[in-house]
Amino acid sequence: MDNKLAHHLLWERLRTGDKNAFFDLYAALYYPLVNFGIRVCADADTASEATDLVFTTIWEKHESLTRVDNVEAYLRTFLKRKLLRILERKRKINDALFNAGADGDWMEMSYEEFIVKVQSDELVKHQLKNALEKLTFKQKQLIHLKFFEGLSYEQIAEQSNQTIKTAYNTIYDALKILRKEFNA
C-alpha cells in the first residue's frame, strides 16, 4: 500500500477518535514534517515545536476534521502556517525588547512581561526549557495557550474542555513550578 493511501486511511480512522491511528500517523509523518519545517524556518527547535503543535491540534480537533486526500500535503500547509505564526510572534517579541531596552526592573514586571524578557537571554532560555520539562503535558499546553496564544481563561477552558477554575488552577500550579525552578 502506498504512503498516500496509508496516510489517508489513518486520517479517516483518526477522525473517528482512533488513538492508534493518531500515533501511527504521528510515527509516519513526524520526522518528515520536522525536516520540512527546518527547510522553512532554518531552526530545528522551532520546527519541532510547531510540528508538536500541529499534532496536538489535530488530536484535539479530530472530531471536526474534514476529509483529506493528501494528508502529508495538508499537514505541511498546516505546519507552514503554524511556523509563520511562531516566527511572527518571535519577531514581535524581539521588536518589543529592542524598543524597551535591555535594562529594566524585573521585580515590577508582570509574569507575561517576565516571560518575554526571559526569551531574549540564551542562558535563561535554557533554564526555561529545563523548567518547562518539569511540567505535565496539560500544564505545558495551558501555559502555551495563556502566554503564547494570549487566550483568556474562559477561552482556555473552552478549548481544553475544562472548567474555568480548573484551567486557572492548572496554570497557577504550572507557574508555581516555573517560579520554583527559576529561584532554585
Describe this structure in words.
- With 184 residues, the chain is mainly α.
- Helices cover 77% and strands 0% of the residues.
- It has nine helices and no strands.
- It has helices at residues 3-15, 19-41, 44-60, 71-100, 111-118, 122-132, 137-148, 153-159, 164-183.
- The relative contact order is 0.08.
The fraction of residues assigned to DSSP E strands is under 5%
How many distinct beta strands?
Answer: 0
The major β-sheet equals: none
Number of helices: 9
Helix content estimate: over 70%
Shape: globular
Structural class: mainly alpha
Sequence of secondary-structure elements: HHHHHHHHH
**Distance between the amino and carboxyl termini:** 53 Å
Unreliable sequence segments: 102-107
Query: Mean pLDDT across all residues, rounded?
Result: 81
Rounded to the nearest angstrom, the radius of gyration is 18 Å
Characteristics:
globular, 77% helix, mainly alpha, 184 residues
Give a brief rundown of this model.
The protein has 184 residues and is mostly helical. The protein is 77% helix and 0% strand. The chain is globular, with a radius of gyration of 18 Å.
Any chance you could write out the topology, listing elements then pairs?
Blueprint: H1 3-15, H2 19-41, H3 44-60, H4 71-100, H5 111-118, H6 122-132, H7 137-148, H8 153-159, H9 164-183
Helix pairs in contact: 1-2, 2-3, 2-4, 3-4, 6-9, 7-9, 8-9
